[in-house]
Amino acid sequence: MWIIAVNLLAVAGIIKGADWSYDFETQWPGVCTTGSQQSPINIMSRDAVVDRQEAHIKGPLAFRGYSNVNATGENNGHTVKWTLVDDEPMPILSGGPLRGNYSFIQFHIHWLSEHAIDGMKYPMEIHFVHVKTGLTVEEALKRPDGLAVVGVLCQVHSGVENEFALGELTPMLPSLFDRQSGPLPASIIDLTRLFSPNMQSFYTYHGSLTTPQCQEVVTWIVMDTPLIISDTQYKLFSKVDVGGIDNYRSLQPVNRVIYRSLASCASLTLPSSLGILAALVNLSSTMSGVVSKGICTIVNMKRKFWGNKTKECIKSD
After folding, report:
1. What single DSSP character describes residue 311?
2. Domains within the chain, CATH numbers bracketed
3. Helix locations, 125-260, DSSP H
4. Which end of the chain is more exposed for a tag (fewer CB within 10 A), N or C?
5. Residue 119 DSSP class
6. H or E element in which residue 132 lies
7. Dihedral of CA 185/1/220/17: which sign?
8. Do β-strands 61-64 and 92-95 pair in parallel, antiparallel, or remain unpaired?
9. What pTM does this model have?
């Protein structure tokens, strides 16, 4: 278990005492400043490739075993994260753009969001980190498909009805306000409460870890439907000491193909037959009114020429 814990710190690129800061990104070690496929990025929906032939996204994502996860919380100076305690059974992610199974090992939180969609940032982003099943983390960090990270964007709405999502985490936050605090005693967490309302609607691309050493070994799956959290819960994160008021990396050059799932295009479907019929009826009515008004105008010109009284031209409704 000790070896697993050390590896989990390595995969996040966050080791106690590591000499890096969000205020000095240009000084980050590893390939953070030299890599060609770095993360996070601004995802432009109009540029994303819709994979209708399932050449890259081969079917829906499958999440198994996420409802009861034994994890321990920690503030490591850069984020708050919850790490899997028991390595058997691990929650498993498969499907979508992934080739094979990926085992969940930890999740952590960024505020503001790291990714942007169509230029818009969100208040928060949750990252679920997975390692390719059968590999150690050290092995995974050397393979381009070694890791898979699911990013869930969060939107803030007021009201207690929006406190369900983070309801299991917020009682732990006061114990994680101080840097280097924790780990907390392990507890059972239902990770599905942290999922997007539509876990089949996503963008995916190949990128990197967003913390040093920024290894380019990550299949990113970014959900495009935000999770709703409460304003009261979000304010708690402003009290968490992570060395600054936020903990997100700057956006990196896109310079690669981004795919989007078919579910993410649902809002782009053609109008219904009834909608098309209504539009045609409205167009017909409009054209009829324009033609009627045009004829009336011509008649008035003739009446005026002959010195007769004109009548008011009113567009038909």
Report:
1. -
2. 2-264 (3.10.200.10), 270-317 (no CATH)
3. 137-140, 231-237
4. C
5. T
6. strand 124-132
7. positive
8. antiparallel
9. 0.80
For residue 218 the two structure tokens come to: 């990550």
CB 127 within 8 A of CB 207: no
Sole residue written with tokens 């034994």:
70
Q: Where are the beta strands (DSSP E) in the chain?
A: 42-43, 49-50, 61-64, 69-75, 80-84, 92-95, 102-110, 116-117, 120-121, 124-132, 147-157, 187-189, 202-207, 218-223, 227-230, 259-260
What's the one-letter identity of residue 1? M
Tell me the C-alpha to C-alpha distance, in Å, between residue 124 and each of 110, 194, 205, 274.
Answer: 6, 12, 20, 39
- Using the structure block, give the residue that is written with the tokens 């942007």: 116
Tokens of 51: 């994979």
Q: Say how many residues make up the chain.
A: 317
